[in-house]
Specification:
Blueprint lengths: L7 H14 L5 H9 L5 H10 L7 H8 L4 H5 L5 H4 L2 H20 L1 H4 L2 H14 L8 H7 L7 H27 L3 H10 L6 H7 L4 H13 L11 H17 L2 H6 L1 H20 L12
Helix pairs in contact: 1-11, 1-17, 2-7, 9-11, 9-17, 10-11, 11-15, 12-14
């Protein structure tokens, strides 16, 4: 029996997760949340991602989302639930997912045998996810699986995303990285969100960013130019490896062939979505 490569789960996640994320950049999401009275895009994000947990307060959202400023969250949560109930938000989100995937992938892909296969594989992987100490995964795991394959695939992608994400937060805490230090160090790898996106969406100011950089320099993780030092690079690598270890179960459960096939299908869907303009061109980078 061929054993699963240590990074196979990460590679699979890296093509499955972004398709989940397309809804957060979609005008369809903004339109659907606007129809239920949530016009502010940041309130829409907090409600859309947090609704699975119920009508929670700002503290619960800050704990689960980690890298957002609590003060920003508190401007919108829990007040957003007075505008629309969590179930109303979840229904609107799923409508947005449907229209977004149909627009980005096309009806032929949405209704294809490949999509149905991808949904089966991703849901099978999610069978081995664990609820304990994983609040966002556990909340989404309690939601019903949609019947249509493209929505079932998106739902499974959400489960796998939040399962890995919850584990990653545990790794960040163990590494002693606070929310903004985690963002700054990730951006310094060249793979994270660009600072202008972080500062415009996460509720942090330029002074907060610079203070986090200073703290990382004091720890020897960042140099004077804002680049990762050797120690910083090693820490980021260890964070990903620790996250891989905490997220290994679903991919072991799916098996080598299943992981390879899900990665292949997920990559195809993602490339199609990206070509269709699913993501802002300046989303990632160091500037």
């Amino acid at each position: 029996m061929t054993s699963l490569h240590p990074r196979a789960g990460r590679r699979c996640h890296n093509v499955v997760n972004p398709l989940h994320s397309t809804v957060h950049f979609s005008p369809d999401f903004t339109e659907e949340l606007g129809r239920i009275g949530i016009a502010d895009p940041r309130a829409a994000y907090f409600a859309g991602r947090g609704a699975a947990m119920g009508a929670v307060g700002a503290g619960a959202v800050a704990a689960a989302f980690y890298n957002f400023n609590h003060e920003l969250i508190a401007e919108h949560v829990p007040a957003v639930w007075d505008t629309a109930s969590p179930q109303t938000v979840l229904d609107a989100r799923l409508r947005a997912v449907d229209s977004t995937l149909r627009r980005l992938l096309g009806d032929d892909v949405v209704s294809s045998a490949d999509m149905a296969e991808a949904a089966r594989l991703a849901l099978r992987a999610a069978e081995a996810c664990s609820r304990h100490a994983r609040p966002l995964y556990a909340a989404h795991a309690d939601l019903p699986v949609p019947e249509e394959p493209h929505l079932a695939y998106w739902h499974a992608a959400t489960l796998l995303r939040e399962h890995r994400g919850d584990g990653h937060l545990a790794a960040l805490l163990a590494a002693g990285l606070d929310p903004l230090e985690a963002l700054v160090s990730h951006t310094a790898t060249g793979k994270g969100m660009a600072p202008r996106w972080i500062l415009s969406t996460r509720g942090w100011g330029r002074a907060d960013w610079e203070a986090a950089q200073a703290r990382l320099r004091e720890r020897g993780l960042l140099d004077a130019e804002g680049e990762l030092t050797q120690a910083g690079t090693a820490l980021r690598a260890e964070l990903e490896e620790q996250t891989d270890r905490l997220d290994r179960s679903p991919y072991e459960h799916l098996g080598v062939e299943g992981v390879e096939r899900l990665t292949e299908l997920g990559r195809s869907f993602l490339m199609t979505a990206a070509v269709a303009g699913a993501f802002p061109p300046d989303l990632a980078g160091k500037d």
